[in-house]
Amino acid sequence: MQESDPHFDSTLAIRPVVVPRPEHNISRANISENALKVLYRLRQENFQAHLVGGGVRDLLLGHEPKDFDVATDATPEQVRQVFRNCRLIGRRFRLAHVHFGRDIIEVATFRGSGVDDDTTTDRQVENGMIVRDNSYGTIAEDALRRDFTINALYYDIADFSLVDYAGGLTDLRLGQMRLIGEPEQRYREDPVRMLRAVRFACKLGFTIEPATERPLFDLGHLLGDIPAARLFDELIKLFHSGYGLGVFEKLRHYGLFGHLFPATEDALAREDHDFPITFVSRGLSNTDKRLLEDKPVTPAFLFGVLLWEPVRLRFEALVAEGMGANEAILLASSEVCSRQQPLVAIPKRFSLPMREIWALQPRLEQRDGKRPYRLITHPRFRAAYDFLLLRAESGESDPELAAWWTRFQDASSQERASMTDAARGRRRPRRRRKPSGSANEVVG
Ligand code: ATP
Ligand code: MG
């Protein structure tokens, strides 16, 4: 700790822990060239310039940071005057984006905590977060309005020291997530912090400190106030970062999953076989494995997996009522999607292929005549086949069917002909429709 340090905030009477360069392991060699350029340039203009957030946290843990964020006392307008390649974004909170080709360094002005914390009149809700005011502040104020202590560490380009206002270095050492301030209040301000707690705990392998963890069990309903588009983005970060299986288990453990996917949670909770859980778990760990191998993944498949169980149950019910399989899968899909969409807005470019993957499931059972030849040319065949494999592996669908399609894809035309002939006799007898008058009856 240094005495008379320039980071001391006399208004808040907060003296941070300052770790000088020789005593920490952040080396400029591990910071991106563009981030360094921004930091040095701001410094040259006599502004404060710090690296902050996930970048500092990950460097301290010896991980490769995803991106580098910069915090400064320069206003966004001042940042724009310093950098030609700069755009200001955001309406209420203006942020500066400094562009280097495709690389963007985000520069945020220190945010104040707001003077009228106790009045609600100046509170506004933006994107599901309670926003007190948008005034700029000191670095100490900026630190205290961040979420977790380990996300509130600053690397000061002036002397390469580490600055810690919230006890993040200790928590980093202990391997734990701790919210800054009163946990319940911080979750109420922005319920997405609950999802962030789960995400970082899984990503870093950290525990969640008890006071930070406790409210997670009770506050899941607050997720209902978050705009559906923001939840979609957050779910992609949760499930497409390589540790989706752990995330799923933790979200269910805290009772958060049911507030994101109520129909799926209902189906899983009343399962009388293991396969629905096995199916989701396998689907997620497949995705984790693909990410590890740098293979592409798509939200269409991810949400297809997460929502399949309610779709399947509804589909089976409709078929039992006498509806044809192709029709029943479409109806079940739209019912489940229209209940899910207000909670988590899946963009059309993902929900359409997701529904195609589902729609192809019953069609994969129809293996006679020319149908299989048409099906393998369908643009969504490969994804639908992968989906079928997953269903077979988890014991939900007949493994013989999946094996048939595996063989069919590589078979010669002669083999294919005998395969479709053999399948003719095996076709599942079409159930008879209920007599007319049934609500789902479609005259065909
Ligand atoms: P990642 O590795 O996922 O990028 P990150 O910690 O950098 O992790 P970001 O979402 O990029 O996460 O946010 C950058 C920083 O902004 C965080 O480290 C944190 O200090 C602050 N922050 C982000 N979201 C919130 C929030 N909802 N509430 C308070 N502070 C937040
Ligand atoms: Mg980040």
**Which consecutive residue ranges, at least 5 long each, have pLDDT under 50?**
115-123, 430-444
Backbone structural class: alpha+beta
For the secondary structure, the number of strands is: 12
Structurally, the number of domains stands at 2
The main sheet orders its strands as 1-10-9-2-3-6-5-4
CATH architecture label name of the largest domain: 2-Layer Sandwich
Could you describe the largest sheet, including whether it forms a barrel?
8 strands, mixed
Number of helices: 20
CATH-wise, what's the superfamily of the largest domain? Beta Polymerase, domain 2
Please bin the fraction of helical residues: 40-55%
Mean pLDDT: 90
Distance between the termini: 80 Å
What is the radius of gyration computed over CA atoms, rounded to a whole number of angstroms?
27 Å
Tell me, what's the shape? elongated
Distinct ligands? adenosine-5'-triphosphate, magnesium ion
CATH fold field value of the largest domain: Beta Polymerase, domain 2
Portion in strands: 5-15%
CATH class of the largest domain: Alpha Beta
Write the layout of secondary structure elements.
Blueprint: E1 17-19, H1 33-44, E2 49-52, H2 54-60, E3 69-72, H3 76-82, E4 86-89, E5 95-100, E6 103-109, E7 124-126, E8 129-131, H4 139-144, E9 153-156, E10 161-164, H5 168-174, E11 176-177, H6 183-189, H7 192-204, E12 207-208, H8 210-213, H9 228-239, H10 244-253, H11 257-260, H12 262-269, H13 275-292, H14 299-320, H15 325-340, H16 348-363, H17 371-375, H18 381-393, H19 399-410, H20 413-424
Helix pairs in contact: 7-9, 7-10, 12-14, 13-14, 13-18, 14-15, 14-16, 15-16, 16-18, 18-19
The structure holds adenosine-5'-triphosphate and magnesium ion.
